[in-house]
């Protein structure tokens, strides 16, 4: 059933106060919902209804009968009933007959026809009040995502013509310099020109801990400057900035419906006309089987049947449940590209992960320095003098070593392809590289180096082996914890695939207690491994990678998860789920949020169907009145919505 929400304020349309919600409902925004004018039609109808019932009950006014009584209840009905009847008529003209508006209109008008005026007004009034509460619930569910939308920067202080000028971020060009004062949001992605900065990236990453960065580091739009005035050189236009892409992703996330949601919407289109024809049957078929058949009584039962049949609880609360899940994930620094991936995540039983940048930091550090017949500091001065001539990541790691004394200077440095460097330092010939370089120069290498699985840099000074430095990538702080938690949530089949040396990959896998690991893999090799896993229909595979080299595997997996995807174009484009921090433990949280969302959605389905079926049977048997019908429709919808809103209050460790 196609259900489009009508707000009571439609009597005075104001398009600026409405926005379209992807499930077909239009809900007023929070400011308009809180506005008293929104509730005035319902308040007016409620007062009229209560006064009318009181006069009926106490018979205080003898003249309150006939046309006066009818007119009174008609006036009470119009503020809440007219928008619904009007919308039902519009849909009827378009050929969309079986809408909720049609059902409510027929049921309440039918109640007037058989003289049940108070009940006719009451049904429409409670329906209208239910709609208002549903609007408020939807707005609360959108709170987390709206908080993210609020980080969109409004202005940028750009340096032009010798001074800083406040302009819209959209008109700032790449390469221009911008200034961000304390407490302001960074309006565009860029490179930090100031010596250092302390930034609050909570809106982007879900982490409240301030992020301290140094000169020439990347900064992202939406971060808040905490300590001092900073300057940034713009590297991306506003529409290409990380925050703009993330906002677009979040705003469009609900466009990708889950299978459950799509099924319910299709089911409602079939279910509603069936109930309408059953209601017709309830009215007329008893004529042929009941001796004391009274048309009015059976019509009343049919009208109750129609009110109960409205699948409001399903059509609203299920999309709201998924929307709540998307919002909760966003608040935790996890972006799902749609409700379909919330569902897919609940089915994952096999997890494949990259090593570098996923469970390790992807930054080389010196693990061990072994100097032979040299003081360590002097040995490192020779090595650092040579590595200053290299741009290799390992060279950068070595240059972070803190040495004492004057720096040495290397001369006549040449690179020997695939082996290392050769040069002169302090009039001594220095060789820096791998074992092949040592063998070529007839340098004897100690046997102990054969057992070292990490990256190793060998050094010879004046044709004599002088020592070595072991370089290793560090595990992330929560890497071990992640594997333990994954096993606890039922992900038993965990595999590591890496392009790094197999010996290093196996060592990292052993540290993390991962039994299945493979190294020395090219991107296509990783893809083949994942395809092999997917060939078994029982395997539902998620792959966690950095979103750049692993793009083919991210795309091929049942669920592709990009780590630290904030600054990665490929991650945002390719992955289904984006972890906005570098914490692999957030993957466990994503699984838990997905399962909580699915659990609440199915609770709502069972609640709605269960109560509706019971009251439908009671209504057909004449044991339920319009009041029970109202509860079965609006009441159950509100209960389901309150259940869905629980997602916003949940905590996942």
UniProtKB/TrEMBL annotation:
Alphabetically list the UniProt keywords.
ATP-binding, Cell membrane, Membrane, Metal-binding, Nucleotide-binding, Translocase, Transmembrane, Transmembrane helix
> So what does this thing catalyse?
Zn(2+)(in) + ATP + H2O = Zn(2+)(out) + ADP + phosphate + H(+)
Residue ranges spanning the membrane: these are 39-58, 64-85, 97-115, 121-138, 270-290, 302-323, 600-620, 626-645
**Entry keyword Cytoplasm:** no
Where does it live in the cell?
Cell membrane; Membrane
In terms of SUPFAM superfamilies, this protein maps to: Calcium ATPase, transduction domain A, Calcium ATPase, transmembrane domain M, HAD-like
What is this protein's record name? P-type Zn(2+) transporter
| Source organism | Winogradskyella marincola
């Amino acid at each position: 059933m196609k259900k489009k929400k009508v707000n009571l304020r439609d009597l005075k349309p104001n398009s600026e106060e409405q926005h379209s919600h992807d499930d077909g409902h239009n809900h007023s925004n929070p400011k308009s919902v809180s506005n008293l004018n929104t509730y005035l039609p319902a308040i007016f109808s409620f007062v009229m209804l209560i006064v009318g019932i009181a006069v009926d009950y106490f018979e205080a006014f003898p003249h309150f009968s006939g046309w006066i009584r009818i007119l009174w209840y008609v006036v009470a009905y119009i503020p809440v009933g007219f928008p619904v009847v009007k919308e039902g008529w519009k849909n009827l003209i378009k050929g969309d007959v079986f809408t909720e508006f049609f059902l409510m209109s027929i049921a309440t008008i039918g109640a007037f026809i058989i003289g049940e005026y108070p009940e006719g007004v009451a049904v429409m009034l409670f329906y209208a009040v239910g709609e208002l509460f549903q609007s408020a619930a939807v707005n609360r569910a959108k709170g987390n995502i709206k908080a993210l939308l609020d980080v969109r920067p409004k202005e940028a202080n750009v340096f032009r013509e010798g001074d800083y000028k406040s302009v819209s971020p959209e008109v700032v060009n790449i390469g221009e310099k911008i200034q961000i004062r304390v407490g302001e949001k960074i309006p565009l992605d860029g490179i930090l020109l100031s010596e250092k900065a302390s930034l609050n990236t909570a809106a982007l990453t879900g982490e409240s801990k301030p992020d301290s960065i140094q000169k020439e580091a990347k900064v992202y739009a939406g971060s808040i400057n905490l300590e001092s005035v900073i300057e940034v050189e713009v590297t991306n236009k506003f529409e290409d900035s990380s925050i703009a892409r993330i906002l677009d992703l979040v705003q469009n996330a609900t466009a990708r419906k889950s299978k459950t949601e799509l099924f319910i919407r299709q089911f409602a289109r079939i279910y509603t006309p069936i109930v309408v024809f059953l209601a017709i049957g309830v009215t007329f078929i008893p004529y042929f089987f009941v001796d004391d058949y009274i048309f009015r009584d059976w019509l009343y039962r049919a009208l109750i049947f129609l009110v109960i049949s409205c699948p409001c609880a399903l059509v609203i609360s299920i999309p709201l449940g998924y929307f709540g899940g998307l919002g909760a994930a966003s608040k935790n620094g996890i972006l799902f590209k749609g409700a379909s991936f919330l569902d897919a995540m609940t089915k994952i039983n096999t997890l494949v992960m990259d090593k570098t940048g996923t469970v390790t930091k992807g930054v080389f550090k010196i693990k061990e320095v072994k100097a032979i017949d040299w003081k360590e500091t002097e040995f490192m001065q020779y090595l650092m003098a040579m590595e200053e001539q290299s741009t290799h990541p390992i060279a950068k790691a070595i240059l972070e070593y803190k040495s004492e004394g004057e720096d040495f200077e290397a001369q006549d440095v040449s690179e020997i392809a695939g082996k290392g460097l050769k040069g002169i330092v302090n009039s001594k010939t220095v060789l820096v590289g791998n074992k092949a370089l040592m063998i070529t120069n007839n340098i004897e290498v100690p046997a102990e180096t054969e057992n070292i699985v990490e990256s190793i840099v060998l050094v010879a000074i004046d044709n004599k082996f002088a020592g070595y430095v072991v370089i290793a990538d560090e595990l992330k702080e929560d890497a071990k914890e992640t594997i333990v938690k994954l096993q606890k949530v039922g992900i038993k089949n965990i595999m590591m695939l890496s392009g790094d040396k197999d010996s290093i990959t196996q060592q990292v896998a052993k540290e993390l207690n991962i039994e299945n690991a493979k190294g020395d893999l090219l991107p296509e090799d990783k893809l083949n491994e994942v395809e092999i896993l997917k060939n078994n229909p029982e395997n539902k595979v998620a792959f966690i990678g950095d979103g750049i080299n692993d793009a083919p595997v991210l795309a091929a997996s049942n669920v592709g998860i990009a780590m630290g995807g904030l600054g990665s174009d490929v991650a945002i484009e390719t992955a289904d789920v984006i972890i906005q921090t570098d914490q692999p433990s957030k993957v466990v949280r994503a699984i838990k949020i997905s399962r909580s969302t699915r659990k609440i959605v199915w609770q709502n389905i069972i609640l709605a169907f269960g109560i509706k079926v019971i009251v439908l049977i009671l209504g057909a048997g004449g044991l339920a009145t319009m009041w029970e019908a109202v509860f079965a429709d609006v009441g159950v919808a509100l209960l389901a919505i309150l259940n869905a809103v629980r997602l916003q209050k949940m905590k996942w460790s």
